[in-house]
Specification:
Elements (H helix, E strand, L loop, with lengths): L7 E5 L20 E8 L5 E8 L7 E2 L4 E4 L3 E3 L3 E2 L3 E5 L13 E3 L4 E8 L5 E11 L7 E2 L21 E5 L5 E5 L9 E2 L3 E5 L3 E11 L2 E11 L2
Parallel strand pairs: 5-11, 12-18
Antiparallel strand pairs: 1-2, 2-3, 4-7, 6-9, 8-10, 10-11, 13-14, 13-17, 15-16, 17-18
């Protein structure tokens, strides 16, 4: 904001002005405010002028409370906004990114951000954290070198009901199959030749099991290092 053709200046309300006695200054209104400039020339004549700065308030945005859910559960986010335009991010695994209550397939702890924009272009955002309780633990590596530490690959936290673990090599050949969650894989070719031990590498696995709300299928890899 600025004024000219005077020798002294006074801006009001001074509390919202960076330099109340400057010709050009910045103002910091938190709501729509009318600022008045009083200017005095070299002859002592004083004049004033007003300018109104309109402050548009950001929209109301609430992404909902933080929550803990079971691993692989389908959960629903609960957003609230008072504007027409909204979007969630990240949009991956959401049933919709521009609706208030999308379903999301949660595989790990994650923040979700809800943003909205007012008709005047003001943006507001809020976030919610979805923490994940893991009833099932699948390690990502093991070292079958007979040192008594981490010598076998097995799944923890799974009941026998519906359990089936398959492990493959990079060419898709089945190396290990079990319907017993207490049976570990020791890095051998259990299906064809249990005396043959596979080399170091990354091996894809496929796990089927049942939770209280139905069967699950999970896929991943395990790194074998001797």
């Amino acid at each position: 904001m600025s004024s000219s053709d005077a020798v002294s200046y006074t801006w009001s309300p001074a509390a919202l002005v960076a330099n109340p006695n400057a010709q050009t200054t910045q103002v910091f209104p938190i709501e729509t405010t009318t600022f008045t400039i009083y200017a005095t020339d070299q002859f002592g004549c004083t004049g004033s002028s007003e300018i109104t700065v309109y402050v548009w308030q950001p929209p109301y945005v609430d992404a909902g409370p933080d929550r803990e859910v079971d691993w692989l559960d389908e959960v629903r986010l609960f957003g609230t906004v008072d504007a027409d335009t909204l979007w969630w991010s990240p949009a991956e695994n959401l049933s919709c990114s521009d609706c208030l209550t999308p379903e999301v397939f949660v595989t790990g702890p994650q923040w979700f951000v809800l943003e909205s924009v007012s008709p005047e272009g003001c943006i507001a955002r809020d976030s919610t954290f979805i923490d994940v309780f893991y009833p099932v633990y699948v390690p990502n590596s093991f070292t079958p070198n007979n040192d008594g530490v981490n010598d076998a690959f097995f799944v923890e936290g799974v009941e026998a009901r519906g359990y089936r673990l398959e492990i493959y090599n990079r060419w898709g050949e089945l190396l290990f199959y079990s319907e017993d969650p207490t049976e570990p894989w020791i890095g051998n070719r259990q299906v064809q030749d249990s005396d043959y031990f596979v080399p170091d590498g990354v091996y894809p696995w496929r796990l089927r099991f049942e939770l209280r709300d139905g069967p699950r299928l999970v896929e991943g890899t395990v790194t074998l290092v001797r």
